[in-house]
Write a structure and sequence with these properties.
mainly alpha, 9 helices
Length: about 200
């Protein structure tokens, strides 16, 4: 796990960091000397939250990719694993039998398909690092205006390009944009973020 923490692949580092944080919380006396030898800053892992969040994960729209279930891949991985267990258990046959007693099992195939869709909820790269749709209007707009993110734009409060986020995030991205505009990126990354 320690070797993974210094791997070149950011996804491997992310998973290693999450696991390392858990180990440090449970057994700090065992892991901290190793981290010291490897010159890994334990302040990043103590307390369950990284102190120095990654600026590259702050998306143009004000959302923080590091908080996103697609970027973390937890839901996608759990869905994948559950589908595998269901196949191994031949649960499609089991659900047919159970549907005689529980009407909800009549919809098992739909449930399995939804899990399949959830498996695909994963981002390989954050928005700022080239992930997502290359024609993403917000990214293109920020690049065209030569700004770091929407928080640098005077029109973000009324920008219609942000509206597509509302069904999932409500006003989360706009609240974040206000926070970044008011206190800067560093303060935003250290504080509470909306999702």
């Amino acid at each position: 796990m320690i070797i993974w923490a210094v791997d070149k692949d950011p996804n491997i580092r992310r998973v290693a960091s999450e696991r390392l944080r858990g180990v440090v919380r449970r057994n700090p006396e065992k892991i901290l000397p190793i981290m010291e030898k490897l010159k890994i800053d334990e302040s990043l892992y103590v307390g369950g939250k990284t102190v120095k969040e990654d600026k590259s994960l702050l998306a143009y729209c004000g959302l923080y990719c590091g908080d996103c279930f697609n970027y973390k891949r937890e839901i996608a991985d759990l869905s994948r694993d559950l589908r595998k267990k269901l196949r191994e258990a031949k649960f499609d046959n089991v659900s047919t039998g159970l549907s005689k007693y529980f009407k909800e099992f009549n919809d098992y195939k739909i449930c399995y398909e939804v899990l399949g869709a959830m498996v695909r909820l994963r981002c390989k790269k954050a928005c700022r690092n080239g992930g997502g749709n290359p024609g993403f209007k917000i990214r293109l707009c920020c690049r065209k205006k030569n700004i770091t993110g929407c928080w640098d734009c005077e029109e973000f409060e009324s920008c219609e390009k942000l509206n597509f986020l509302k069904p999932i995030h409500g006003e989360g991205q706009v609240k974040n944009l206000r926070k970044v505009k008011k206190g800067g990126i560093e303060k935003f990354l250290e504080g509470n973020r909306d999702w």
